[in-house]
User: Fold this.
Amino acid sequence: MSQTWDDALRASGHRVTPQRQLVLEAVTRLEHATPEEIYAEVRRKAVGLNVSTVYRTLELLEQVGLVTHTHLGHGAHRYHLATEAQHIHLVCRHCGSIIELAPTAVSSLVTALDRDYGFETDVGHLTVFGTCARCRGVAAGPAHAGPAVPESAAADRWSR
Amino acid sequence: MSQTWDDALRASGHRVTPQRQLVLEAVTRLEHATPEEIYAEVRRKAVGLNVSTVYRTLELLEQVGLVTHTHLGHGAHRYHLATEAQHIHLVCRHCGSIIELAPTAVSSLVTALDRDYGFETDVGHLTVFGTCARCRGVAAGPAHAGPAVPESAAADRWSR
DNA sequence: TTTAGTGCAAACACTTTGCAAAGTA
DNA sequence: TACTTTGCAAAGTGTTTGCACTAAA
Assistant:
């Protein structure tokens, strides 16, 4: 049931190239890497390799099912092997640290969402933002007041 | 304990302008809006208003505590009122629909993360990707094989 | 009047595209 | 050989910045 990465490419009618191997290796080595980081890593071995190739390759590898990506805050796509054990991420807002957890940590949530809403959770994509234990001690979070909302009116006064 | 939005601005040493009111209104009206969408909405009332003003205003309003943002997939920042009831999001990968849930739906997870990892979850930012009930019936998810990883070697053959 | 806020245009970071040359099968 | 993939350069998105002008307080 297990095939090699190059067979996976060939089987889907794509060609095996050094570029693709390098990108896949980079994804394997650096976990949670952005396209940018993957590009930098790949360049260490192959200076001539182009950014667009990295993007195209990542898209292909994902399509073929060799890699997947997650969103870890802002706009950063981060890629990792599809074969890697599924895990969820805790991202600390303050120090930016990423904590990996086994999916079992959220199994009760997954079960509940399925039972109550018929929603099938993509565990590999689950990211929880918050504050890690270390930062909690340091920062005393600012308390928001909770002001009322405007009543739309002044606009016509100056619009044009 | 509740103040008006313009007082919130003044209190923090900022000025009250029509632009800021319009942006805040847009955020209020369209829930989960991207800067782009907010800009479009605002332009309907004030053609002259500039995109950069929208970005600057959103940043300010967030800083002052009137609005907050969430990441709902790719790189899309979506803004909503800070006063709005906290809620978590279920995003369907297939149809793109967004389901809002009360934070209580994940309270057990929040408790567990706190107890086990000392992690304080930012519930307002929690987004769960997956497949909604409707799409589950339709799409028969493709099963990934799980090919092996390359063994780094061919690279030197052609790098330069 | 003073100083913060705005519009404009240009700069940015990141990602995508068209096309001819190079390389896989 | 035939046809996919790459490198290159140029074009797109979405977001940010500097600066002179405008307007809130």
